[in-house]
């Protein structure tokens, strides 16, 4: 996910990021949002100029335009239909749906509903304060892209009687999901020392929330990652001071963290921004922030984090950082006693300039990864999880031959060029399935491995055909729960099969998976085993570990071979 200043919401940020254009007068902000709506509409061939105010009412000076005309371009086929386990609520600010505001759709959700409530939100800027109470679990916000759909408000700590209550969106329910939408607080950007100017874009206070391809825009305290277990994937997060803060247990994968702190004159060494402020108050609290394969850039001279509470815990792993990061890296919130209690780690962080942090940052705060307890991802991966049964028929130093028993898997076909992106996309859909997005509304236990198969003639950076597999646990082998139709999943029954397997370590990526497959092919060419002519796949990549396991990772390349199906042996 790349940041482009030509994106419509990036343009909006440029306009709204100046205090010259912002004021506490909502009508003033609405004026600029309305102007932006015209820019957005004219720059997109798929957008039709519709005359509607921010509160969903039509302007009276367009009396000749009927609602039918305004809704001609409404993408009705894109709105999912209701299913046995999902109810769809359609939101369009121009009145082309049942609801013109997001909050009205939330209010219509049945209290304590066990079904998933999918709130489908059309393109547009929804200027409203949104609250999801604890009594409304299992809600999904489905936007049309984080650069084209946003919920916007402008409360501050002063106006809302506290930072925690300033969020444009506040989520207190469990199992909340957001996809392809932005959350924004457009209050004036505070200057250093301003009191009560904190302005939260979203507060996430419910357990098991996930965000996919979302944007978070603000200045001080943008994302209040308050409490519970949360997952952020391919998100764009912008702010200036403590712009990710709270006491949640959260994993951020492949996210962009962008500082909008003011640029400093050359040679000036003052600090004017901070990425994180974690609030772990005691060693007994199971919380922390983990950033994996993220990037940090923008402007200013900033710290990666500061210890908001004495036992703050933050991990940056495999993360690229520009030279805006100050060499000291971390701040104890002016309380030296916190230096011995906080955990701040940088396993394999990548810095863009030689002057960036590695030498000085490590002195006090860099603790060996092996010596601390890693934050566990909501799902986790473990050797204790079920896996398909097999018998080793033949073993050499470079590979082994396994005979796999009959089994049933759930599959996600993916059209994508990149192996890594295909795996992420497929597992995203499979994750929803195992979390209950099936006709039985059943939760399915995690298993290993997650298997990505490359169709014959395809491959990373070459073609675009993949299938991602999830092995169904023994409980569901005979009667797999049927997936919701919109997930585009289907069960696949395997007969007894013979596979050549090569193991490799590290993270499975586009380049090394091809290299490992080529090594396995070379080994097989010198053996008695030949690649199966009847196989639909060139090879498969099996991954066994959580994204937060940095060392001792296990991956495998699988290739279907002939020659061992008739052997009668006991399975592992």
TrEMBL record:
Single GO BP term: cell wall modification
Recorded coiled-coil stretches: none
Signal peptide limits: 1-17
EC numbers: 3.1.1.11
GO molecular function, one term: pectinesterase activity
Active site: 242
Keywords, ordered alphabetically: Aspartyl esterase, Hydrolase, Signal
Domain Pectinesterase catalytic: 91-335
Highest taxon listed in the record's lineage: Eukaryota
Keyword field contains DNA-binding: no
Pathway where this protein functions: Glycan metabolism; pectin degradation; 2-dehydro-3-deoxy-D-gluconate from pectin: step 1/5
Catalytic activity, reaction form: [(1->4)-alpha-D-galacturonosyl methyl ester](n) + n H2O = [(1->4)-alpha-D-galacturonosyl](n) + n methanol + n H(+)
Sequence similarity: Belongs to the HEBP family.
Descriptive protein name: Pectinesterase
Organism of origin: Mikania micrantha (bitter vine)
